[in-house]
Structure formats: C-alpha cells, structure tokens
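Reviewers asked in the last cycle whether our approach scales beyond single polypeptides. To address this, we selected a multi-component target totalling 486 residues and predicted its structure end to end. The input consisted of the following lines:
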Amino acid sequence: MIKKEAAILVHGASYKRGEIAKKLGHPTKTVISPSGISSVYTDSKALEIFLMVYAGLVNKQIVAKLQKFGVNAVGLSGLDGRIWEGKRKGKILIQEEGKTKLLTGNLTGKVEKINVGFIKLLLDNGFCPVICPPAISYKNEIINVDNDRAIAVMAKELGVKKLVLLFEAPGFLRDPDDESTLISHIKKEKVDEYLKFAAGRMKKKILGIREAIEAGVEEIYLGDGRIKNPISLALQGKGTVIS
Amino acid sequence: MIKKEAAILVHGASYKRGEIAKKLGHPTKTVISPSGISSVYTDSKALEIFLMVYAGLVNKQIVAKLQKFGVNAVGLSGLDGRIWEGKRKGKILIQEEGKTKLLTGNLTGKVEKINVGFIKLLLDNGFCPVICPPAISYKNEIINVDNDRAIAVMAKELGVKKLVLLFEAPGFLRDPDDESTLISHIKKEKVDEYLKFAAGRMKKKILGIREAIEAGVEEIYLGDGRIKNPISLALQGKGTVIS
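The resulting structure, written as structure tokens, was:
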C-alpha cells in the first residue's frame, strides 16, 4: 500500500524549449547578470514558445502520465487562477563582451505571491496540482519566472516541510563535471558554505533552497531525475539530503 | 454594472495549429469520413503540436486576457482532472481518392463523460474554466476530440441553458460563400432541416448543436468571432439565434 500524501509537482522544460525554439527559428538566448547568474532572455516570440512547451506540451504529458498512475493531476501555469503572481523586472543589467549593458523588453519577473486558497482547494479535493511557469504580473503581463524562487514562496505560504528537487545529476556535486564528488548530506544551516561549488543554473537552485529553508522547509532531497523511481530514491537519500 | 454569471469558455486553435505545424515540418493532415465529415488526422507528432498550440499557447493567451478583464480564469485541457473523458476511436474509415480506406494510429476519440464535480468546484469558487481539447481516454490515452460534442455533453451534465458559439462567419449562412445569406433565427425543433446548408466543419457544429438541444439547452447564439464584443453582439441577436 502506498500512503497518499498531498503533493504539488513543479516542473520546467528548458531542454525541450531549446529544441522547439531552434526548430521554429528563434533559438533560446541566454544572458548573464553582472553577478554571474545566467538566465534566458524572453522576448514576446520566446514567450510564445515558452507557453507552448511548458504549459502545453510538457505540462500535459506529465498530467497524462500521472493520470495513468491513478493520480488525478491538474496541470496549471502560474497564470491560471493567479497561482503565481509577482513583479515584472522590466530592464535588467547583463554582462556581454566584458561590458555591463542594460537590456529592455525582457518579459521576466519574480514570484512574490501565491494563490494559497486555490492550491488548497485543489489539494483538499484530492487533486495533484502540476505547476509550471510562466506567472502573472500585478499588471496582468505574462512573465517568465524561476521555479526555484516560486517553490520557496509556495513552501512558505503553504507550510511545506519537505522538498524533492530532481535534475540532470546524481545530486549536488562538489565538482559539477565529476559525478563521483556527490555531497550526500548538508546541514541546512550550512547551505551558504556550499554556494561556492554551485555553477551556472545550480547557483540559482541553491539560492532557492536557501530561501526555502528560511521559509521553514525542514528536509530537501536533491536527486537524479534521469533514473527510474527518482522520487523514492531521492527520499531514500541516494542523492544529496539537506536537513 | 455588469452582472456576473457563471460561465465556461471552450476554445479551439485550429488556424494557429496549422501555422505552427507547418513551421515544424509536420503540416496538419485532414481526412474525410465516408459520410463526408472532415477531421484532422492526429498521429503522435501531430498530438504534440496540438498540445503545444491548444493547451499551451492559445489557452494561456486567453487566460491572460481574461485576467486583464478581472475574470479569474483557469485554463485547462480535457486531461486535467479528467474534465473530458471518453472513448478512443482507434481505427477509422476515410474516403481517399474515391476509395474507402481504413486508417490506424489516429489518436482521436469522443467525449462521453465530464468531471462535473471539478467544474462545479471551480465555478462555485468564482473561477472561470477555460477548456480546450485534448481529452483523456478511459485507458488514459491523450485523445483529440471535437469541441462541439464535448460542449453538448457538458451542457447536459451541468444543465447549461444558454450557449454562445463564435466562429469566422457572421452566423449560420444559407450559402457559406455569401455572408448576406445569414439565417437570423432557427426554431430549435427545426435544426435538422438546416443540416443541408452546412458544409465542412459547420456540419459538425450543427450536429453538436442538435445534441446540445437534446441535452436541454434552450438558447444558442451563433456569432462572429472576428469582431469586437463578439459575445454581447451574439447575445443581442446579431448572428443566428436558435431558440
């Protein structure tokens, strides 16, 4: 017997997005902030592709798979019912060819507010929300947002105690190019000390994890999303456990 | 003051789907049944494009627009929460080059069941469901389905009394190529007599309307979706009223 616990699934689709964006002749463009954090530049065409791949293709494929397992999944973007709401960033500073430049027209933002009532309504009625970006801005713009930040805000507002994060690595690696350098346990008070090992997108994840811990999350399991039974194995401590 | 009534929005995206399908090198293929009804052939690649354009791009663009108008819209495909459930058709007969052929691998079906509880939960809590195909089969396959049939089943199960149908014409035309031949009123008992004027996809719509009337719908407004304020104008009788 599998014990049923209320669960929320949050997903990305960046690899698939890159693939489709290329096919549609509008390849994904990455920009680097002055502090070295990379993110995707989202103009209106990129946002259309984003909606197609995240909220359309990947979200619904996950929903169909969960339905097969008997989970009554409901796929939603952050727009739906204003689940994820926040501020549009507007202009951002980027680092390009050794110079700091101002970039406009970027349709991105940061989740600050959650529709707690709607999520609870779904959970209380036995549904499993499957959520992905984009979110909605206070001015009703569609904005691309980071999952990691959104998860931290959800954790806080919903009182989530346990997080499982899956990605394309066995867990958090001391050297991102060497899978044998897996860190199996991190004390949650010491997450900051590990920031120095985090490169690229992992940096954002660790910042999100720090926010989640500040929000009251007690256990975080980082696991390999490429293997079979990734969630059970992560919960068994096969990846990195932060507690 | 606008009086707020509970409303469900159902949409298609066939034009946009055709456009994206072509760009992705997998143009939409239409097949004709022996009785002359045209439909789209949906293989697994076409289904992926379908998910992207219907459940991703167009669904979320409508949701964002409604949010702008203060309507708390929630975009869903028929898969989500098993809102639209039905039977997969499997093999179908098609008419090609004057011959009747058997077509396999078609991921289509017919909506037979509605998740009434979920739709009511959303309506009772002030949300406006924005629903589009695909649906889910009893065996958890993703199936492309006709909106018109799904609407008729929803009308029956939810006790809907009023339907507004918008398309790319001023209403139901006696001659599809002549917009001056608009039929402004049809008695709901006489819909069958008008089937002979319906060509192509309109035939399906009329069959869906017949089902909706049998299901208890009292007023159906057919209106022009290309103009400003299409719903208000349709309700004012500018298109075809069936009652």
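Chain B has two domains: 1-159, 161-243. We regard this as preliminary and will revisit it once experimental data from Aim 1 are available.
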